[in-house]
Amino acid sequence: MEKGLNPILYVSETSPLTESIRTSFRGAVKLRKDLGEDDYINSMRHIAAFVKPIVGTMMVKDKPKRKEFYLENEWRYIAQDGGIEPYLKRDQYDDALTRQKWNAQAEIHGKLEFSPDDVRYIFVPRDSDIPGLVDFIERKLDSHSSAKIKLLMTRITSLEHMSKDM
After folding, report:
1. Concatenated DSSP letters of the chain
2. Whole-angstrom Cα distance, residue 122 to residue 107?
3. How many CB atoms lie within 10 A of CB 148?
4. Quick one: pLDDT at residue 139?
5. Which residues sit opposite 76 in a β-bridge?
6. Cα separations (Å) of 23 from 17, 18, 27, 28, 44?
7. Which residue, among 2, 162, 160, has the nearest Cα to 75 in the 3D structure?
8. Residue-wise pLDDT tens digits, 4-53
9. Residues pairing with 52 in the sheet
């Protein structure tokens, strides 16, 4: 939370809250058209970045799959830096070169920086996933002290192991 992460707001497509968000967005668009006022539309875009439907469809191996998103308990970090576009229009996103260009800018200007001290838990699906993660930590986080790396590795737990204790 200290780094600006926030849980997703899951909304039902037919809820009054969803309609209030839509109404507010339409009002922000009208203010932008009528008064050239961008602050409201930018605020609404920022709010929208944290909104996700309770259920929906996602692509898995190039096939649509129904998903209950609220089970994810997702948190997001939305980078806000002058070097990053606040959003891409559909045609920009669909164009691989444009998307690649803005992803590169986001990597430069929008990284979420954190250290091993910021991590309390690391969950992996199976016990067999732990050695690969330990190897990754040793290879990629070697700029941190050995004590911090060792402590981080103690925070790895498999869901497979936890399920045996429940």
Report:
1. -TTS-EE-EEE-TTSHHHHHHHHHHHHHHHHHHHH---HHHHHHHHHHTTEEESEEEEEETTEEEEEEGGGG--EE-----TTS-S---HHHHHSHHHHHHHHHHHHHH------GGG---EEESSGGGHHHHHHHHHHH-TTS-HHHHHHHHTTEEEHHHHHHH-
2. 23
3. 14
4. 93
5. 6
6. 10, 9, 6, 9, 11
7. 2
8. 899 999 999 999 999 999 999 999 999 888 887 788 888 898 899 999 99
9. 10
Asked whether the whole model's pTM tops 0.90, one would answer no
Residue from 12, 90, 86 nearest 52 by CA: 12
- What is the predicted pLDDT for the residue at 33? 84
Q: Please tell me the predicted confidence (pLDDT) of residue 42.
A: 85
- Give the count of beta carbons closer than 10 Å to the beta carbon of residue 94: 10
Q: What is the pLDDT of residues 66-113, one digit of tens each?
A: 999 998 889 999 888 777 877 788 898 888 898 899 889 888 888 888
Residue 87 region by backbone torsions, left for phi larger than 0, else alpha for psi between -120 and 50, else beta = beta
| Euclidean distance between CA atoms 2 and 6, whole angstroms | 10
